[in-house]
Design goal:
By secondary structure, the chain is α+β, with helices and mostly antiparallel strands. The protein has one domain (4-162): Nucleoside Triphosphate Pyrophosphohydrolase (Alpha-Beta Complex), CATH 3.90.79.10. It is built from 3 helices and 9 strands, in the order ββββαβββααββ. It has helices at residues 48-60, 114-117, 124-137; strands at residues 4-13, 19-24, 33-34, 36-39, 69-80, 84-93, 107-112, 141-147, 155-162. The mean pLDDT is 92.
Length: 165
């Protein structure tokens, strides 16, 4: 039986549209670039929005509110790295961040144009699932279930989606 963890990822951009990514210095995904985020403080009853606000402030210093966030996806990843099931909430932040944050314990930051992300070392599940979702669905909403068990083809089921025209 695998543990179930709940987390958020927050996609931040500067005014030029470049994405802020963190090169992780800790597990999971050490050495890979990813959006900022973290786990819900479940003992406090923290909501995904509260987690996104807290993590954004802690990791970047940017002060945001619920109105700055758009929840665009909820993903259940089953069997990630054969160690955990994840429930992830993906947020697009409408408030730009223009100053590159200082390095933190979790890693160092960089701004990247979207077209360069495919050239970066990113987790394989991010390459196959996360970045296509961000590019295609961030204006609307989708709920997905992904089977990520090692040795099996990744199966993604769209449970719900809507697009904003």
């Amino acid at each position: 039986m695998l543990p179930f963890k709940i987390s958020v990822l927050v996609f931040l951009r500067n005014r030029r549209g470049e994405l802020l990514l963190l090169e992780r210095a800790k597990q999971p995904n050490i050495g890979f670039w990813s959006p900022i985020g973290g786990k819900l403080e479940m003992s406090h009853g923290e909501s995904p929005f509260q987690t996104a606000i807290r993590e954004t402030g802690e990791e970047t210093g940017l002060v945001i509110t619920e109105q700055d966030l758009h929840l665009f996806c909820m993903i259940t990843e089953r069997g990630y790295e054969a160690s955990t099931h994840w429930l992830m909430f993906l947020f697009d932040c409408r408030k730009p961040i223009d100053v590159l944050p200082a390095s933190i314990e979790e890693g160092r930051f960089g701004f990247f144009p979207d077209r360069k992300i495919d050239d970066l070392p990113v987790p394989e599940t991010d390459r196959q699932l996360l970045w296509p979702i961000y590019r295609e669905k961030r204006k609307g909403f989708c709920a997905l279930r992904a089977d990520c068990y090692q040795g099996m083809p990744q199966a993604v089921v769209v449970e719900e989606q809507f697009e904003v025209k």
